[in-house]
């Protein structure tokens, strides 16, 4: 019997088999990156609260660079403005690949994680603003709890979710990518106090040249796209430097440059092109740099905060800034994501995939409350590096991220054990082609 054409489509489907394999590969890579991120943050916290704490802050505030180009920055600022641009470059590549060649090219599949990301941004911001309402000095941090840390969240899922359904993993990755893109948009719009118009207009020159060479890279660099980055890297740095000089946060350049990179998935005749596309080559080259160096170094310089013992910790956690961040990340994020997902199911033809339960989505939504990397960045932009409010925000971000990770691990760990038992009893059959039947069924 054929499917009823009026039947509701799955709210979160399995996607394609190649998509599932790619998501699994990303999960394996991010495990190491997430571990390095945590180690860097722990080292920073220990050093910042040790008898040698002054040396940590002296290192963080050490300035290097060339002032006439507006590039005489502290090491902490270089990490936040420069190294995180590499991280957001990968975020942009991942998002563009999802839109052009992934499952997000279908609006019916894209609408759910996008709606969930919006819910996970709006509600935490409203919660923080409500708790800090009437205080003009602290309400500026409303965007701190809006972001999800991709590396941290995906690393936790990779460790505890070995048997969880693939749609959950695709949902989290897509949600986190869209979430961070919204966060960087917020940074560009709301955390830019003064714009140097000349520098901003000049930014368009290397950006346009970068995009032109990237789109025509086969003509200029032949069939070996790996050679293109030797030319594109200095052009990209010029675009980053000019955007930094314009007053807009320089990490925006990472996303802008990534969106110019072509995602080559087929030729004009409909056949798959020979060799990897430039986006895939760049992702392969820059992901180890991002996960293994850029993000951990940023975490090292940003996570260090002198807590001041139990009394200082209690004082920090009683600050409305900290209360707003913790409540928004641990409660606001999952509630906003689940509410947006439920509303999508309620008012559209979408329904939850039979392989999933709402409790599974609740666990992944808790993981989205890990707002480590981008939240630390927004905290610095909101209150200034080294300010008391920023120090309290750091304590709250670290505490909320750990709490969200623990709660998600408990819930998803329990679900993972159940799925492992179920898969042991009812193995998914695979045809001779090795592709599980679930990916070949009509969706």
Automatic annotation (TrEMBL):
<feature type="transmembrane region" description="Helical">
    <location>
        <begin position="220"/>
        <end position="242"/>
    </location>
</feature>
<feature type="transmembrane region" description="Helical">
    <location>
        <begin position="172"/>
        <end position="191"/>
    </location>
</feature>
<keyword id="KW-0406">Ion transport</keyword>
<feature type="transmembrane region" description="Helical">
    <location>
        <begin position="197"/>
        <end position="213"/>
    </location>
</feature>
<keyword id="KW-1133">Transmembrane helix</keyword>
<feature type="transmembrane region" description="Helical">
    <location>
        <begin position="139"/>
        <end position="160"/>
    </location>
</feature>
<keyword id="KW-0739">Sodium transport</keyword>
<feature type="transmembrane region" description="Helical">
    <location>
        <begin position="248"/>
        <end position="267"/>
    </location>
</feature>
<keyword id="KW-0050">Antiport</keyword>
<protein>
    <recommendedName>
        <fullName>Na(+)/H(+) antiporter NhaA</fullName>
    </recommendedName>
</protein>
<feature type="transmembrane region" description="Helical">
    <location>
        <begin position="395"/>
        <end position="413"/>
    </location>
</feature>
<feature type="transmembrane region" description="Helical">
    <location>
        <begin position="322"/>
        <end position="343"/>
    </location>
</feature>
<keyword id="KW-0915">Sodium</keyword>
<dbReference type="InterPro" id="IPR004670">
    <property type="entry name" value="NhaA"/>
</dbReference>
<keyword id="KW-0472">Membrane</keyword>
<feature type="transmembrane region" description="Helical">
    <location>
        <begin position="111"/>
        <end position="133"/>
    </location>
</feature>
<feature type="transmembrane region" description="Helical">
    <location>
        <begin position="69"/>
        <end position="91"/>
    </location>
</feature>
<feature type="transmembrane region" description="Helical">
    <location>
        <begin position="355"/>
        <end position="375"/>
    </location>
</feature>
<comment type="function">
    <text>Na(+)/H(+) antiporter that extrudes sodium in exchange for external protons.</text>
</comment>
<keyword id="KW-0812">Transmembrane</keyword>
<feature type="transmembrane region" description="Helical">
    <location>
        <begin position="31"/>
        <end position="49"/>
    </location>
</feature>
<comment type="similarity">
    <text>Belongs to the NhaA Na(+)/H(+) (TC 2.A.33) antiporter family.</text>
</comment>
<feature type="transmembrane region" description="Helical">
    <location>
        <begin position="288"/>
        <end position="310"/>
    </location>
</feature>
<dbReference type="Pfam" id="PF06965">
    <property type="entry name" value="Na_H_antiport_1"/>
</dbReference>
<dbReference type="InterPro" id="IPR023171">
    <property type="entry name" value="Na/H_antiporter_dom_sf"/>
</dbReference>
<keyword id="KW-0813">Transport</keyword>
<keyword id="KW-1003">Cell membrane</keyword>
